[in-house]
Design a protein that fits this description.
The structure holds 2 protein chains of 2 kinds. By secondary structure, chain A is an all-alpha fold. Chain A has 15 helices and no strands. Chain A folds into 2 domains: about 100 residues, no CATH class; about 240 residues, MetI-like (MetI-like fold, Orthogonal Bundle). By secondary structure, chain B is an alpha+beta fold. Chain B has 2 domains: about 230 residues, Rossmann fold; about 120 residues, OB fold (Dihydrolipoamide Acetyltransferase, E2P) (Beta Barrel). In chain B, strands 11, 12, 13, 14, 15, 16, 17, 18, 19 and 20 form a 10-stranded antiparallel beta sheet that branches. Chain B has a 6-stranded mixed beta sheet with strand order 6-7-8-3-9-10, sandwiched between helices. Chain B has a 4-stranded antiparallel beta sheet with strand order 2-1-4-5, with helices on one face. Chain B is elongated and about 80 Å long. The chains are: A mainly alpha, B alpha+beta. At the A-B interface, helix 10 and helix 11 of A face strand 6 and helix 2 of B.
Chain lengths: ~350, ~375
């Protein structure tokens, strides 16, 4: 009986593999023939897509478990983690390497130009402006998010309507950067001067109500960067607040009481007990938002398109690639950005892992 | 050092829960007072009111004659040791101990002298540069005590400081804190739910239940003359045996009658028990005041069946049951009972207790 079974098994498996391959290829061919009937095509794509993935995993698992014991654990790992790893390699590693290669070639990607694109990236006035602006985002954007997050978390912690306040602050997190851009366009709206022109921007309304003069806020050189940074602060403070708030709640109440008995006042407790206790969390939040501001794109793209002195690296990369079609320069910028982000990311991950140890 | 007086102290929480009801405690200078009671009895709340961590709803708290109800903890000159130690995790042992002094702006060398002295007293000198996470439970407890003693406060407060330690360490730390009290000559208030800690450490014990102080007295006073059934059952291990019995008059003398119980308490009790003739009372006798007898004395016996035998080496605890209640006897280790045996005991008549049925108060209790 056993002998029979083991004799049959490879045959059955081979059959299954052929069947699966047939299902996959046949389905694909059939899918293409449905071009004209879009509804049917969508339905079939969903069923076939999900079904074939399930079938593929099932068959590969069967094959893997039928292997000799020694190979089995390795084979099973390959079957389940393999596709994800392969996909990551294909979608992440290969493009990165390709970008690296392209960054040494000209706009068309055909002629080798050496370091010319990198010379451009570090010397072009618009790039220098972008570097400066990204630095502004990193310093002011990150610090305002984190500091506001800490302040709100601490204040809310002692209040009666804590969850209400926290929800209000957290809510902008649900809005996309592009959506936030649209909202804030109204905040900063400027209609210009003229007869029958009514200012609809909130900021201008406040300024004129106080007796000031309406301004085109997004055109004010240098300071317009801060008006954009305010948008990210509005969006990201909630994130910082929620994480920091949970860290504050994890501080045992007796620690604060011990400090009070030791003679510490509110401010001393905050700076000497609370802040040091949540330092690992603050570092993690800070690095996360730092990465965010390094690769910031949407807000600038939507609000100013990078004009009026508000350009950032990611936006310039977008311009070079999709507006000017200069693949070489775009790739060089992307690589530069990557080089900046990787150390921060590595530090962030390290902190994240060691958080348990630090506590 | 200092004298602490609690005058009619009450604590009512939002929502009307009365945690402490009309507490009056007079703590003398250099006294070691233990607040003891089951969880939720208000002992910790009382301590926290003395510390200033909890507002006092009503009454007066006096430290050295000065009313401190409205003063912040830092202005009361007290130090507190917490149950979970509450060490600052990001500071070294040295900084933990120096924190309070730094805030009070002591000179650097003064701080160093005090911390080193405290470390020497507590034998933690080699730990000064470590962080709390690198310490064992007992070491953390020492640091927490050290943090209190460097400040040389008027009053030391301990909130169940030993309950997170294992049994062996607890016994050791108990002796150390007692020794510390003798050495520092300071006023100390100590909260625990463990009556053994209370008995062994306290100059004076305050027994609390449901927010009400039951009795205040020296350990032996509480042991020998409990004011009510609760204190009788709470102080002492194993606890006092409490049996339901009836007072009857037979042949002109008062007799305590119950299931398997018949005791003629004797002259000294007759006067007091007269009003209870025909009524049920609680009859109390401690496990060590029961003596096993082969020949039953018809005027003084409790007869019961053996349920469990616990040999402890130096003595043996025997759990017994009568038709109505269970009791424990403390017997010599040589006694040869078997589970199921019926045994008779006589009571040490000078150490028996009677409690009223309704309010459970001791009938013969006299205030000092």
């Amino acid at each position: 009986m056993d002998k029979n079974k083991s004799g049959f098994k490879p045959l059955i498996l081979a059959g299954l593999v052929i069947l699966t391959a047939g299902f996959l290829i046949g389905g694909f061919v059939f899918l293409q023939s449905l071009q004209n009937v879009k509804v049917l095509m969508t339905l079939f794509a969903v069923i076939w897509g999900v079904g074939s993935v399930a079938l593929l995993y099932f068959v590969l698992n069967e094959v893997a478990t039928s292997l000799p014991r020694k190979m089995r654990s390795v084979a099973v790992a390959f079957v389940f983690a393999g596709p994800a790893v392969a996909l990551l390699f294909w979608a992440l590693v290969v493009p990165t390497l390709r970008s690296l290669r392209l960054s040494f070639f000209d706009a068309t990607g055909k002629h080798f130009v050496g370091l010319a694109n990198y010379v451009f990236a570090f010397s072009d006035p618009i790039m220098l402006e972008s570097f400066r602006n990204n630095l502004l985002w990193m310093i002011f954007g990150t610090s305002s998010c984190v500091i506001l997050g800490i302040i709100i978390a601490v204040l809310a912690d002692k209040s009666r309507h804590e969850s209400l306040f926290k929800s209000l602050i957290f809510m902008p997190m649900a809005i996309s950067f592009v959506g936030a851009g649209v909202i804030w366009k109204f905040m900063y709206a400027y209609k210009g001067e003229g007869i029958n022109v009514v200012e609809i921007g909130l900021l201008n309304a406040v300024v004129t109500a106080l007796g000031g003069k309406a301004q085109a806020w997004l055109l004010v050189p240098f300071w317009n960067n801060f008006f954009l940074i305010a948008i990210m602060t509005w969006l990201q403070t909630g994130y910082a607040m929620v994480i920091i708030s949970s860290a504050i709640k994890a501080i045992p109440e007796s620690l604060n009481e011990a400090a009070r008995v030791d003679g510490a006042g509110g401010f001393t407790i905050f700076f000497k007990i609370t802040i040091p206790s949540i330092m690992p969390t603050i570092i993690t939040v800070t690095t996360t938002i730092l990465i965010f501001s390094l690769k910031l794109f949407d807000v600038v793209r939507v609000m100013t398109g990078g004009n009026f002195g508000t350009n950032v690296i990611a936006n310039e990369f977008y311009q070079r690639q999709f507006t000017y079609g200069n693949t070489g320069q775009a790739s060089a910028i992307a690589i530069v950005l990557l080089v900046f982000i990787v150390p921060v990311l590595a530090y962030n991950l390290k902190e994240f892992r060691s958080r348990r140890v630090l506590k | 050092m200092a004298e602490v007086i609690l005058k009619n102290i009450c604590k009512v929480y939002d929502g009307g829960v009365k945690a402490v009801d009309n507490a009056n405690i007079h703590i003398n200078d250099k006294e070691f007072v233990v607040l003891v009671g089951p969880s939720g009895c208000g002992k910790s709340t009382t301590l926290r009111m003395v510390a200033g961590l909890e507002d006092i709803t009503d009454g007066d708290l006096l430290i050295d004659g000065k009313r401190v109800n409205d003063e912040a903890p830092k202005d009361r000159d007290i130090a507190m040791v917490f149950q979970n130690y509450a060490l600052y995790p990001h500071m070294t042992v040295y900084d933990n101990m120096a924190f309070g002094l730094k805030i009070r702006k002591y000179a650097k060398d003064e701080i160093e002298t005090r911390v080193n002295e405290a470390a020497r007293i507590l034998d933690i000198e080699e730990l000064l540069s470590r962080k709390p996470k690198a310490l064992s439970g007992g070491q953390r407890q020492r640091v927490a005590v050290g943090r209190a003693i460097v400040r040389k406060p008027k009053v030391f407060l301990f909130d169940e400081p030993l309950s997170n330690l294992d049994a062996k360490l607890r016994v050791q730390m108990r002796a150390e804190i007692s020794g510390l009290h003798a050495k520092l000559q300071a006023t100390m208030i100590y909260v625990t739910h463990d009556q053994v800690e209370a008995m062994t450490m306290g100059d004076k014990i305050v027994v609390m239940k449901n927010g009400v102080i039951q009795q205040i007295g020296t350990p032996l006073k509480l042991y020998n003359e409990p004011i009510n059934r609760f204190v009788a059952g709470f102080i002492g291990s194993p606890p006092m045996n409490i049996l339901t019995a009836k007072i009857v008059e037979e042949n002109g003398s008062i007799v305590v009658k119950g299931a398997g119980v018949s005791v003629v308490p004797g002259k000294e009790y007759e006067e007091g028990l007269k009003p209870y003739v025909g009524k049920e009372i609680f009859f109390g006798v401690r496990p060590e005041d029961l003596e096993e007898v082969r020949k039953v004395d018809p005027n003084n016996f409790i007869t019961a069946n053996v349920d469990v035998i616990e040999p402890l080496g130096a003595e043996t605890h025997v759990w017994l049951s009568t038709a109505e209640s269970t009791l424990i006897a403390r017997t010599a280790p040589s006694s040869d009972f078997k589970v199921g045996d019926e045994i008779s005991f006589t009571c040490n008549l000078s150490k028996i207790h009677f409690f009223e049925m309704e309010n459970e108060r001791s009938i013969f209790f006299k205030e000092d």
